[in-house]
Amino acid sequence: MAWGNYVWICLGISILLSACSPAIKPWERGTLAKPHMALQPNAIEASLRRHMQLSKEASSGGHSAGGGGCGCN
Fold first, then answer.
1. Beta strands in 5-60 (DSSP E)
2. Considering 4, 7, 18, 54, which has the largest number of Cβ atoms within 10 A of its Cβ?
3. pLDDT-above-90 percentage for the chain
């Protein structure tokens, strides 16, 4: 087997195994539910930022849909 094929196989296996994560135990859920672990810790600020972005984009759902504020996709 060529050295390049071996590298690609090892890289593929490592990528597949990196997606595996251990199950979260019930007693660990309290740690992950703490406010400082949230993706958006301040819900009001996140809502205002989303509103400002939508207003600037001039379209509904501009933060997740393709295209710009002109309506083209």
1. none
2. 54
3. 3
